[in-house]
Amino acid sequence: MNDDLLEIAVANNASWCDLICSTHGIETQFLPNVWLTKSLVPKYYPNLITLKPESKAEDISTIPLDHFSVKDSFGKLNLQSQGFSKLFTASWICLENNSKTQNTHSWKQISSDQELSVWEDAWGNVSSDRIFLPNLLLKPKVRIYAKMKGAGIISGFITYESDGVISVSNVFDKNNSNIWPEIVNINYKNKPLVGYEKDKDLEYAKGAGFVEIGKLTIWEK
Questions:
Q1: Do both 108 and 203 map to the same domain?
Q2: What is the spatial distance between Cα 17 and Cα 13, in angstroms, rounded to a whole number?
């Protein structure tokens, strides 16, 4: 079952990256084994994602950019011979059976352009180039959550529903506290929660009931 959930989590993530690119007007392609774009992408997003465990290094199409990144969704490829260096590894996670009760009183869903800009600043984008554009708020499967303290945002995360699951991403907390139990409470929809994390957030997510279902590697050139 984990193998099925892993491919579903990968598909959801590729769909999310595709959506982000579409909000920036970037052309993308879904091929049998990879998702890719040959244009510049927003910061932190890949130019290519492997979609299947059988994806091979030969599936990495030539991308006419000096610098770009590849998300090896199954952590199986060695791209050093193609001039890439390993940026980081992480673990895919999933929570299949969420029996929590919904509790949203301390959280709000971002709904305006101004709120989204403040949220992105709180998340930690120090660039003047926005990643999350206002047209993202028009997408019904996307929810951007914020926890407030006074007039400021202290915590946040994004969910995206596709392929029968809900992904959790862009988790942050300015106090470095564990908000994963709250994330689980908010997103009770009888659908598996998926995502990928590393380091402290991986341990926090596992403490909230998530299990590791696979490995991924980010390569950059």
A1: yes
A2: 6
Q: Render pLDDT for 51-76 as a digit per residue (tens, 0 to 9).
A: 999 988 777 877 889 899 999 999 99
Contact by Cβ (8 Å): 145, 1: no
Residues 117 and 142 in one domain: yes
Residue 218 lies in a domain: no
Structural domain harbouring 169: 95-210
Q: Total structural domains in the chain?
A: 2
**What are 69-120's pLDDT values in tens digits?**
999 999 999 999 889 999 999 999 999 976 665 566 689 999 999 999 999 9
Q: Is residue 73 left, alpha or beta, with left meaning phi > 0 and alpha meaning psi from -120 to 50?
A: alpha
CA-to-CA separations, 77 to 14, 38, 81, in angstroms, rounded? 18, 20, 11
* Global pTM value: 0.94
